[in-house]
């Protein structure tokens, strides 16, 4: 009986070790996919990036646009950096995977993008957006089937810049109104004083 228990423990230990090795190998494959995808994205090589995507990939972009398919992915990337909807001069990513959940030929990974935007005026904006990606293994090769990015809606450099601009504009507007009121009051008092000097026995009406 004891021998059977020992053999069972050995088999369980071997299975656990084998699973750990498999997960470690899968993590390494996913990290390699991330590195290749980031390099292609930062270089603007959409054809290369498309080869790492599932053909029907769904991407939710930082501007909340949702693209479906590799062609739409390339179209929106180019729209962000040129044309009427241009959002920035360049976008660079340096994502970190913080965790993953792997089940056979499917995996979900999540982490931070460490994304940097260079705006049209040359201003560099660094965000710390988060991402969640769904990966599928097709013919032994991992592909990105879904990618969702999300920034902090209530605390980010773009929002702070916009609020600062509004505050500055409000201050300027308030100062201008105050100056105009002061000038008007001074002008009115000056007229009343001059009238009194010229007509000491006939004061002006209030």
Q: Would you write up a description of this structure?
A:
The protein is an alpha+beta fold and 206 residues long. Helix content is 49%, strand content 26%. It has 4 helices and 9 strands. The strands form 2 sheets. It has a 6-stranded mixed beta sheet.
Indicate the percent of residues in helices.
40-55%
Overall number of strands: 9
Radius of gyration over C-alpha positions, nearest whole angstrom = 32 Å
Instruction: Classify the secondary structure makeup into a structural class.
Output: alpha+beta
Distance between the termini: 113 Å
**Helix count?**
4
Give the SSE order as H and E letters: HHEEHEEEEEEEH
């Amino acid at each position: 009986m004891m021998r059977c228990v020992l053999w069972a423990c050995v088999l369980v230990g071997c299975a656990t070790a084998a699973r750990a090795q498999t997960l470690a190998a899968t993590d390494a494959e996913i990290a390699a996919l991330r590195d290749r995808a980031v390099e292609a994205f930062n270089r603007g090589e959409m054809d290369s990036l498309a080869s790492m995507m599932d053909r029907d990939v769904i991407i939710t972009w930082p501007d909340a646009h949702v693209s479906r398919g590799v062609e739409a992915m390339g179209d929106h990337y180019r729209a962000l950096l040129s044309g009427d909807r241009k959002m920035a001069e360049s976008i660079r990513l340096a994502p970190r995977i913080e965790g993953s959940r792997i089940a056979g030929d499917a995996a979900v990974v999540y982490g931070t993008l460490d994304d940097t935007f260079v705006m049209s005026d040359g201003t560099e904006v660094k965000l710390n957006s988060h991402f969640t990606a769904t990966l599928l293994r097709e013919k032994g090769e991992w592909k990105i089937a879904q990618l969702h990015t999300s920034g902090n809606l209530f605390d980010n450099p773009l929002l702070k810049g916009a609020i600062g601009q509004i505050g500055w504009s409000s201050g300027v507007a308030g100062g201008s109104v105050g100056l105009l009121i002061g000038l008007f009051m001074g002008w009115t008092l000056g007229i009343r004083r001059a009238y009194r000097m010229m007509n000491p026995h006939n004061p002006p009406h209030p």
